[in-house]
UniProtKB/TrEMBL annotation:
<dbReference type="Pfam" id="PF06877">
    <property type="entry name" value="RraB"/>
</dbReference>
<dbReference type="InterPro" id="IPR036701">
    <property type="entry name" value="RraB-like_sf"/>
</dbReference>
<dbReference type="InterPro" id="IPR006506">
    <property type="entry name" value="CHP01619"/>
</dbReference>
<dbReference type="InterPro" id="IPR016097">
    <property type="entry name" value="DUF695"/>
</dbReference>
<feature type="domain" description="Regulator of ribonuclease activity B">
    <location>
        <begin position="140"/>
        <end position="242"/>
    </location>
</feature>
<dbReference type="InterPro" id="IPR009671">
    <property type="entry name" value="RraB_dom"/>
</dbReference>
<dbReference type="Pfam" id="PF05117">
    <property type="entry name" value="DUF695"/>
</dbReference>
<protein>
    <submittedName>
        <fullName>Family of uncharacterized function (DUF695)</fullName>
    </submittedName>
</protein>
<feature type="domain" description="DUF695">
    <location>
        <begin position="4"/>
        <end position="129"/>
    </location>
</feature>
């Protein structure tokens, strides 16, 4: 099974954290692997509790040394790790029978605080390691801002951006638009499709676009992303994210 790694930033108990999780097990987790084994791997941290670029590379080398020792165990699934306050927590799933051998390998490799617990429904993986839709969009926002900076864009000015959504039911869409229009936010326009259009294979939905003018150097864009993610869910919709208006976007279904 090919690994599909998702990296994202979030907060854990008020502290900044960096997560990396293998999404290839979302639909194909091994139900016989009912035990989760975890250990700690310290790293040299900056003031925010996370490693610098050079220290992160050093951490990855140390992590690879450990995971390479476990590759010989066929029934062990390496699912991810998270970094916070100078310590990485690393997670594997395995069968109960393989637990003892896996823990022995980790302890022999001088891994710290090795422990195991039963987790037959993979709660740690699904409820803790897997990013929420909001965390994914916050990470995507940081990546978009980074791309704009790399292109030499000056973010300390007003940008027109488009936020996109879709709704399966027209009533949900209309109630969402009415709610957004009532908020004390400076949105320039609210647009929507008159009919459902294809959004996925065998799925049609109503499209919505909200236009906003915002200074991308400030935190307004992050506040708006959080507002739209939470509000769209309340009205049974899906928030797809945002992009600057000068990027390519198919608008033929929007009026």
């Amino acid at each position: 099974m090919a690994a599909q790694w998702q990296h994202y930033r979030t907060n854990v108990n008020g502290n900044e954290a960096l997560f990396s999780v293998n999404l290839s097990y979302v639909d194909e987790q091994r139900m016989d692997a009912s035990t989760v084994v975890q250990f700690e791997l310290p790293f040299e941290a900056e003031s925010d509790g996370l490693p610098s670029e050079s220290n992160f590379k050093r951490f990855i080398r140390d992590l690879i040394k450990v995971t390479s020792l476990i590759n010989s165990l066929d029934k062990v699934s390496y699912v991810g790790y998270w970094l916070c306050n100078g310590v990485a927590q690393v997670y594997f799933y395995c069968t109960y029978e393989d637990k003892t051998e896996l823990m022995a390998i980790l302890e022999h490799a001088n891994c710290q605080k090795v422990k195991a617990q039963l987790d037959p429904t993979w709660d740690i993986y699904f409820d803790f390691l897997i990013p929420s839709p909001l965390e994914i969009k916050m990470t995507a926002t940081e990546e978009m801002l980074s791309i704009l900076r790399q292109r030499g864009e000056e973010l300390d000015k007003a940008y027109k951006v488009d936020h996109r959504f879709y709704f399966y039911q027209e009533q949900d869409m209309q109630e969402f638009l009415e709610y957004v229009a009532e908020q004390d936010k400076d949105f320039l326009s609210l647009q929507h499709s008159n009919m459902p259009v294809p959004v996925r294979e065998n799925e049609n939905a109503y499209l919505v676009k909200v236009e906003q003018e915002v200074n991308l150097e400030e935190n307004i864009i992050f506040d708006t992303v959080e507002f739209f993610e939470q509000t769209s869910q309340e009205f049974q919709g899906r928030y797809l994210g945002w992009r600057p208006q000068n990027s390519v976007m198919d608008e033929k279904y929007l009026n």
